[in-house]
């Protein structure tokens, strides 16, 4: 299929399956000042499971000093109710984190490094080569336990400190991890710099080179282009996306950065276009509406604020009088 035909077809989902991965319970909550009680985290994951998400990034197995908001990772991962068909994953930074995650029966390990040297130093306090060697050991640990690994590569579409990141550079890092036998790669728009034509090119190049490799796209809505970038990805052959309930999240090294692509907004749009996300939007929205009470502030979600397109509302209380006055003028 030509690129032109592919782009034309993106507007008609025709039942095509799109997999939604929820990252709000990790990527979102780790950015919050308020500690969400353990039982509420468990209830949130359970609610998202019932909504039919393909994958849920439940927590992170990191030092409590590094991310105190997720210090209860083991308890949450052990006590959630697991729905058949949903993958329960967690972020792990090192071998010790991997061992903890495996012991807690995590379905998949998510590893992170940046393709930008500056961002990697700021975010992980390591050079890229150092991160790669550390993650190589984590991958070996996971493989010994027969636990699948996904690698999330940050700043694939630009770095706020270095600027553009060459597509060839991104693909070279993908190759390094493909050579280690990982099951999946996530291309991350960590700082909200991606734009649709760039995304389309990157996804096409990835799919041509690694047609059997699991590919996920992770967009932020910092500059209001998350949905446009999702559609560009679909046009290029992608079918799996990270998103965050309520639009929670952000990046401390991107000035003005807003949260991740919002789960309910992306699902709402894709369903209207005829895609099958396998999810119950009403359940997702209900979960999103519970967030402000847990985190102490409103979320960016426009679906929570405005409702779905198909929601209907009562006319004004004086509608009968308005109608009568209009008829009287005829």
From TrEMBL:
<dbReference type="InterPro" id="IPR043594">
    <property type="entry name" value="HMGL"/>
</dbReference>
<comment type="similarity">
    <text>Belongs to the HMG-CoA lyase family.</text>
</comment>
<dbReference type="GO" id="GO:0016829">
    <property type="term" value="F:lyase activity"/>
</dbReference>
<protein>
    <submittedName>
        <fullName>Hydroxymethylglutaryl-CoA lyase</fullName>
    </submittedName>
</protein>
<dbReference type="InterPro" id="IPR013785">
    <property type="entry name" value="Aldolase_TIM"/>
</dbReference>
<dbReference type="InterPro" id="IPR000891">
    <property type="entry name" value="PYR_CT"/>
</dbReference>
<keyword id="KW-0479">Metal-binding</keyword>
<dbReference type="Pfam" id="PF00682">
    <property type="entry name" value="HMGL-like"/>
</dbReference>
<keyword id="KW-0456">Lyase</keyword>
<feature type="domain" description="Pyruvate carboxyltransferase">
    <location>
        <begin position="18"/>
        <end position="285"/>
    </location>
</feature>
